[in-house]
Amino acid sequence: MSAVVDLDLRADLQAGMDSSVATARAITGSDSTEQSGQLDAVRLPIGAWLRLLWNVTPPLLHLPAGIEGRQTPFLAESGLHLPSPPAGASKADARRWYSAAAAHAAAHIVFSRRVFVREGTAPITQALLGLLEDARAEALACRELPGLRRLWAPLHTATPEDGDDFETLMLRLARGLVDPGYDDPHPWVRKGRARFYLDDGGEVLAQSQPDALRAMASALGNDIGQMRMGFNARMYRPGPSYRDDNRWLWQGHAGEQPEQSQPLSAAARLQEGPADATPPARVQWRYPEWDRRIGKLRTDWCVVQERHPQVAESVGAHASAVATLEDDAPVQRALTLMLQKSAMRSRVLRRRERDGDDIELDEAVSAVLAQRSGSADELRVHTRSTQAAESVAVLLLIDSSASSARPHGSDAAGGTQLTTQQRVARLLAGALATTGGSLAIQGFDSDGREGVNHWRVKDFDEAWSDGTAARLASLQSGLSTRLGAALRHATRALTAQPASRRLVVVMSDGEPHDVDIHDPHYLIEYARHAVQSARLVGIGTLGLLLDAEGAAASRRIFGAGQSALLGDAASLPSVLGRLLG
Questions:
Q1: Do 27 and 80 form a contact (C-beta atoms < 8 A)?
Q2: pLDDT tens, 344-384?
Q3: Model's pTM, two decimal places?
Q4: Which residue(s) pair with 287 in the sheet?
Q5: Phi (first) and psi of residue 32, to 5 degrees
Q6: Is 114 left (phi over 0), alpha (psi -120 to 50) or beta?
Q7: What domains can be seen in the chain, in order of their start residue?
């Protein structure tokens, strides 16, 4: 089964979930007990549905009427607090509303990473940033599970007939960001949509970093100020009604309750502490595994644990094997130049130029007709092909299994496969920082299908620092290599990155192995299936081979021309250049 089919199936399972909810008791009544019963009727199936979609299970809690006047869902440490559905909703509509609210909150848990500071941020900017982050999380969720758009879009009903006040314009903008078919005539709404997406179809996000999203909210808020529109921040509640109130997005002021400002504990994998702090608790994900013997995916077969490398009090022994920046400077310059000239840049065709590479036939015919009619303007009939930098997100997977302790390279220091990979990681981090790409670095090893470790060294939105270098130097060789599960987890991480080009680069000896598998071809085929699934959702995969003995397996996994032998870190620019070319 392909990855696309798999994702669509998961998204469309809502229909099947609705049939199980149909057996629940009637959703009616208005007192507190009956309102709580509404949520009880759908709590179990929706919880199972969220686990199926994202493998997250926040507690679903009823929000009684009258608590501080809030009737808007909200996320907190204790779970997802849900009020009753909108008044007058039928039982089927109520089930869909609960499903939409829960799926929206789960999208935040999976894709929303930052908590902002309220101090110095205007109320209008806070409201707009919440709207934009809601839309960003939903856009990323729909990219992975397209069926979710059919759940959310019908709940956006704002139209120009509803008015032009600020809160109504926000509802119209929210609809424009989730529904590609909605065309709003208001210039402010159109401006917001044009700045949020790079394309008319609403497929490619323009704003990839939290600071950029905040700057966009500030600019849109300034436009509202220029239009002299009023805004009552105390009475404002985000819309439509299924969306939470975004309190998780903001760090609270002194004296606020923790649940008013802290994100869900399920999002702990996104929190980052100082390099010498105790690593956060591990977070687990379940993934299917391709079984070549039966020709099927085994559902929830592998458990991937996100962990932080334990940084020792002194990492000097590890760091000494990694080349200094001065030693690597020539290699890094060559790598940077290669990335600037490689396929990490896209071809852009400019039309109606005075001169260029080719003549555009339609423009040439129009120019001739204009000349004959005596109304000829300046001739602009050429096209010019140029190269433009793409927005690039790269996830570098470092094989930290036991085999990575083998000697590698020709340097006098007698480095290992792991130290070569550490040097490559530093080189790639420096080069992508110069060229404007984003990079995440993760190590991986495994101890059976329920013990696949992903070691978080550097996240996409994290700058290179002493802490990052310490985590990289603290990676240690051990255990086995269940590459397929590591690739599935890397695919999930890259899916959340709003870049025009997303790429997994795997460094390994090319031969997957694990303690619970004895078929020599099983894990190779699993990894190959994971590579194909990643490519079906627009994520490229390349292999940097550290051992020539794994060449056949690597070609099978990544395909012809998608893997190459890396003799040492100094050869990275030429090897990677051939793969990207």
A1: no
A2: 555 556 666 767 777 777 677 777 777 777 665 666 777 77
A3: 0.51
A4: 302
A5: -60, -40
A6: beta
A7: 1-268 (no CATH), 283-340+391-580 (3.40.50.410), 347-389 (no CATH)
